[in-house]
Amino acid sequence: MAIVPGSGGERSIRVRLRLFAAYAEAAGRDELELTLPPGATAGDALAAVRREGWAARLPPRPAVAVNLRYAPSDRVLGDGDEVAIIPPVAGG
Amino acid sequence: MSEVAAQALGGTVVFVGTVRRTAEDGDIHAIEYSAYRAMAETEGDRIRAEAAARWPAARIVLRHRVGLVPAGEASVAVVAAAPHRAEAFDACRFVIEQIKARVPLWKREHLASGAARWVEGVPPGGGAGGDG
Questions:
Q1: A40 Cβ contact partners less than 8 Å away, ≥ 6 residues apart
Q2: CB interface of A with B, residues 15-74, below 8 Å
């Protein structure tokens, strides 16, 4: 019996990706939905966003948050996670 | 300050950051603050928890405005009360520095000329900010 990768029970995940401030302005919107393969990481979500033209505006390693917390790029995502690309912060 | 008041706390330090009217190249009419609100609130809670771990006797309150804040008005306030002034100063300083370093807030300067521009921030988790 042939085992075909990806054809079985593993389903892709959907994440909500949020953009803020100068990044939202560059993108012309403040959120998008991404469909990613199971096991996808925060870095994979970022790579998917980089296919969009405006993403040239992003620095090489922007800060990313997953579910309201800063996360490393190897953080594995789950279905329904909220991922945010955080521009340099300027509170105060 | 009533939020932090207690008879055992002998020192209270208040930091208030105010929108400056002057920039290098023109007068600032106002600063428009925006936030990743849910994360800003949880990150603020984490900063407070970290301060509580370092200065267990201190009481701390932090507030940050969002939206348009006219020049001369306060945008951020940190109040730290502790049994003695040294901890109150240290805790207050810690909290404002952490706010500036990592809370997802952004500002857009509105100049007197009518132009507006994003203020360059600091990559969260690293670098030092200015004051206020």
A1: A13, A76, A77
A2: 18, 20-22, 25, 59, 63, 65, 68-70
Q: d(Cα B66, Cα B98) in Å, to the nearest integer?
A: 18
Q: What is the pLDDT of residue A3?
A: 52
Domain, as residue range, for A77: 13-86
- Give residue-wise pLDDT tens across range B71-108: 999 999 999 999 999 999 999 999 999 999 999 999 99
Interacting residues of A52 by C-beta distance below 8 A, sequence separation 6+: A27
Q: Which residues pair with A63 in a beta bridge?
A: A86
Tell me if chain A has a CB within 8 Å of the CB of B121: yes
The predicted complex's ipTM stands at 0.88
Q: Quote the number of domains for chain A.
A: 1
